Amino acid sequence: MMRKLAERPEDVPAVFAERFNSGDAQAVAEVYEGGAVFVAEPGAALTGEELHAANARFMDLGVPITVRPRHVYAAGDLALLIVDWVIDGTGRDGRPVRVEGTATDVARRGRDGYWRYAVDNPFGVRAEAERRANR
C-alpha cells in the first residue's frame, strides 16, 4: 500500500519518490497542490496538465528515482527543500539512463494538514548556471 501524503515537509520527497516509482501518474499528481509550478528549464514554468505531462516523461523512462533531502527549511506553512535526486538504471529499451539534479523546491501545508509541492524545480540553480555558461 502506498504511503499517504506527507505530514512533515521533510517527507515530501520520499512520498514523491514512492509514488513516482509506483508508476501511478495520478498518485504523483496528488503530491502537488492545485496551482503548483514545475520548472522544466529556466524560464519555463509548467502548470496543470503540462506539469503532469513533464512528470510522465520522466516516469516513462521506466527507471526508479532515488531522492536524498539535503536541507529542509520550514517557516510556518511553507518549506524550502534542497533535494539531491537521481534516475539511474536501465530503461525499457535496454539502454542505460541517468538523469540527476539538485532540486530547489517549495512545499506548502494544505488546509488538510498535508504537505505538497507548490514549486518543483528539479534542476535547481544548476540548469541556470549551465544556461549562462553556454551563451
Describe the protein.
With 135 residues, the protein is an alpha+beta fold. It has one domain: Nuclear Transport Factor 2, Chain: A (Roll), CATH 3.10.450. The protein contains four helices and six strands, in the order ααββαββββα. It has a six-stranded mixed sheet. Strand 4 and strand 5 form a beta hairpin.
Question: Key features?
Answer:
4 helices; 135 residues; 6 strands; Nuclear Transport Factor 2, Chain: A; 42% strand; globular; alpha+beta
**CATH domain class:** Alpha Beta
Termini, distance in Å?
47 Å
Helix-strand pattern: HHEEHEEEEH
From the coordinates shown, what is the CATH architecture? Answer: Roll
Strand content: 35-45%
Largest sheet, spatial ordering of strands: 2-1-6-5-4-3
Give the total of domains. 1
- Please compute the radius of gyration using only Cα atoms: 14 Å
State the oligomer: single chain
Outline:
With 135 residues, the protein is α+β, with helices and mostly antiparallel strands. The chain has helices at 12-22, 25-29, 48-59, 124-133; strands at 32-41, 44-46, 65-75, 78-90, 96-109, 115-120.
List the helices and strands and how they pair.
Blueprint: H1 12-22, H2 25-29, E1 32-41, E2 44-46, H3 48-59, E3 65-75, E4 78-90, E5 96-109, E6 115-120, H4 124-133
Parallel strand pairs: 1-6
Antiparallel strand pairs: 1-2, 3-4, 4-5, 5-6
